[in-house]
Amino acid sequence: MHAVILAGGKGIRLRPYTSRLPKPLVPIGDEFSILEIVLSQLSQRGFSSATLAIGYLGHLIRAFVGDGSRWNMDIEYVTEDVPLGTMGPVRGMLDRLPEHFLVMNGDILTDIDYADVLRHHSAHGAPLTVATYRREVRIDFGVLSTRNKQVVHFVEKPTIDYQVSMGIYGLSRSTLERYTVGVPFGFDDLVLDLLGRNTPPAEYPFDGYWLDIGRPDDYDRANTEFDSIKGTLLKGA
C-alpha cells in the first residue's frame, strides 16, 4: 500500500509556529511531530511506501524523514516549485504510483484506519473516495428567513450539521489521467468535475478522533489533548 502525503504548504494560518518549521514538523505534546505520528500510523497499518509532496521548507522535511527506514517504509519526494493545489502534485507523479493509493494532508491527527480507507476505495470502484466527518456548527445568533421584506421563519441559535472532508482520500491513477500536468488542480476542482460527469465520489464516513491542525486554536487543542489520545493515535509507541 502506498500513500501520498501533501506537505508543501506554507501553513500561513498557523503562524507564528510555522515561521521556522513546515507545518507537518511542528511538535505535538513535546514528543512527536505531526508527520512523525502520521508515518508511524501508516507503517502500523501496513503501508510500505509513501511519496511526500514538499515545498515550503521542504529541506527540513527531507532531513527529518530521510529515506523512511526509521518507519520501515520507502519514502521518496516530489518538490512543488509553485503551488498546485491538492490534486495537482499527485497528477504529476502518476507514473510512479500504483493503480489505487491513499492521498492525505500532512497536518491531520486522527485514529482512522488508513488501510481500511484504501481497501474500501479499491473494493467499490469509485473514482475517488472521501473520508468524511460529521461537524456541528452552532450559530450564535437568531437566524431569520425573509421574503418580500418580511420575516417568514425564525430559529434561535440553531446548530447545523455538516459532513466535511477529512483531507484523506482513496484515489485511482485512472481518475487523474484525464487532467493536465503542471497546472493548479484542487480537491474541489476534482469533485465538481466528477459530479458534472455523473461519476460521483464515494464516502467513507468516520466518527472517531479527527483534528485538522490548521489554526493556532487547533494546535493548542492538539497539545492539550495529546496525553489522553496518544495511546489511541500511536498504539505501542
**Lateral arrangement of strands in the main beta sheet:** 5-4-1-6-11-8-12
What gross morphology would you assign?
globular
The secondary-structure class comes to: alpha/beta
The named CATH superfamily: Spore Coat Polysaccharide Biosynthesis Protein SpsA, Chain A
The helicity comes to 25-40%
What is the CATH architecture assignment?
A: Alpha-Beta Complex
Major beta sheet, specifics?
Answer: 7 strands, mixed
Q: How many extended strands?
A: 13
Secondary-structure element string: EEEHEHEHEEHEEEEHHEEH
- How large a portion of the residues is in β-strands, by DSSP E? 25-35%
Annotated CATH topology: Spore Coat Polysaccharide Biosynthesis Protein SpsA, Chain A
Beginning-to-end CA distance, first to last residue? 22 Å
DSSP summary: helix tally:
7
Please mark out the parts with pLDDT under 50 across 5 or more consecutive residues, or reply none. Answer: none
What is the C-alpha radius of gyration, as a whole number of Å? 19 Å
CATH class term = Alpha Beta
Report what the structure shows:
The structure is a single chain. This protein has a single domain, classed as Spore Coat Polysaccharide Biosynthesis Protein SpsA, Chain A. Strand 2 (27-28) and strand 3 (32-33) form a beta hairpin. The longest helix has 18 residues, at 216-233. The radius of gyration is 19 Å and the shape is globular. The chain has helices at residues 34-44, 58-65, 88-91, 114-124, 173-176, 187-196, 216-233, and strands spanning 2-7, 27-28, 32-33, 49-54, 74-79, 100-105, 108-110, 128-138, 142-147, 150-156, 159-172, 202-206, 210-212. The chain contains 7 helices and 13 strands. With 237 residues, the chain is an alpha/beta fold.
